[in-house]
């Protein structure tokens, strides 16, 4: 049975939403959660029925959001360090944390290690799209200063993930640029373009609008650009919904229309753009699986992050990533 090491102390709201998410996941799937953190605090939130369905590993330290990412390597009794070590030692198949993302990425990269041919892991996330499949974007914050080789590796990893996890038989890959013409881009993207031609699914440069229109399955960019893109998109979604609410309140016909569309339109729309549906972002390129969730994750997000980790392990996507890189080289 798949074993998931879970940083029970990570996140903005402590262990309560994490443990509630674990309980929700256990109600739907069979797996073994290994909760890492303060045992007494964990047990105070864990319903008695589930005590014998989880394992608990004691950790007396927690990496706070204000701490440096490298603290994760020095503070070996922290919950995230111990959770990562379980994967390194083969006692867990994957690690999931809603705690300090930088600390999680640092610990996972240096303790679990990278796949052969990967210079730096990439953080991937799914973005809503009007197409059949959501769009996978990477990197969204792992590597802010990239070299062309990094972007090529992101493309290969994204292509493998889209095939094995998203179930797309022949995924397409695009390079995010300021225009779709081959000649467009900055120094980095122009140098990356010929490398990405080694990927079967590469279709060339794509623009920001193509993230949401279903033109491409995987979009490659540096972590600095990707992180800004991600946070801008979240802000736009929140603003659009707030504006809709404002205008609906001002008009009786709009209120009636909104009531009629509530179940069929708004519920489906919210599900499409709700980040809790994805749970977290996989750090691709590791000799294992690490899922990084938002600090403010709800129990639903934790549950879906766990499911994402299970799918990752079951798919053996890392073997496909290694194959892609070997073929490209």
UniProtKB/TrEMBL annotation:
Pathway: Lipid metabolism; phospholipid metabolism
Protein name: Phosphate acyltransferase
Complex formation: Homodimer. Probably interacts with PlsY.
Domain of life: Bacteria
Catalytically driven reaction(s): a fatty acyl-[ACP] + phosphate = an acyl phosphate + holo-[ACP]
Molecular function in Gene Ontology: phosphate:acyl-[acyl carrier protein] acyltransferase activity
Organism: Sulfurovum zhangzhouensis
Major subcellular site: cytoplasm
């Amino acid at each position: 049975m798949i074993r998931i090491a879970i940083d029970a102390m990570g996140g903005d709201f402590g262990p309560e939403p994490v443990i509630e998410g674990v309980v929700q996941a256990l109600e739907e799937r069979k797996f073994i959660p290994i909760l890492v953190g303060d045992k007494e605090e964990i047990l105070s939130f864990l319903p008695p029925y589930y005590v014998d369905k989880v394992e608990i590993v004691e950790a007396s330290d927690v990496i706070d959001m204000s701490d440096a990412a490298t603290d994760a390597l020095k503070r070996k009794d922290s919950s995230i360090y111990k959770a990562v070590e379980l994967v390194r030692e083969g006692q867990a198949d994957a690690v999931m944390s809603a705690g300090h993302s930088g600390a999680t990425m640092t610990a996972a990269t240096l303790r679990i290690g990278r796949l052969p041919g990967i210079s730096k892991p990439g953080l991937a996330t799914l973005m809503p799209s009007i197409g059949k499949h959501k769009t996978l974007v990477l990197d969204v914050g792992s590597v802010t200063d990239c070299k062309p080789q990094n972007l090529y590796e992101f493309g290969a990893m994204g292509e493998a993930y889209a095939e094995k996890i998203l179930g797309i038989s022949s995924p397409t890959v695009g390079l995010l640029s300021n225009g779709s013409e081959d000649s467009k881009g900055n120094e980095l993207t122009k140098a990356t373009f010929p490398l990405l031609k080694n990927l079967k699914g590469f279709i060339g440069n794509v623009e920001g609008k193509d993230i949401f229109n279903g033109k491409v399955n995987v979009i490659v960019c540096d972590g600095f650009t990707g992180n800004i893109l991600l946070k801008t998109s979240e802000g736009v979604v929140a603003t659009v919904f707030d504006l809709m609410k404002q205008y609906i309140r001002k008009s009786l016909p709009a209120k009636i229309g909104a009531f009629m569309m509530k179940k069929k339109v708004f519920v489906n729309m919210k599900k499409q753009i709700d980040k809790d549906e994805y749970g977290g972002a996989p750090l691709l390129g590791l000799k294992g699986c690490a899922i990084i969730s938002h600090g403010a994750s709800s129990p639903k997000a934790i549950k879906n992050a766990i499911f994402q980790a299970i799918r990752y392990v079951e798919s053996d996507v890392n073997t496909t990533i290694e194959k892609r890189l070997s073929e490209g080289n």
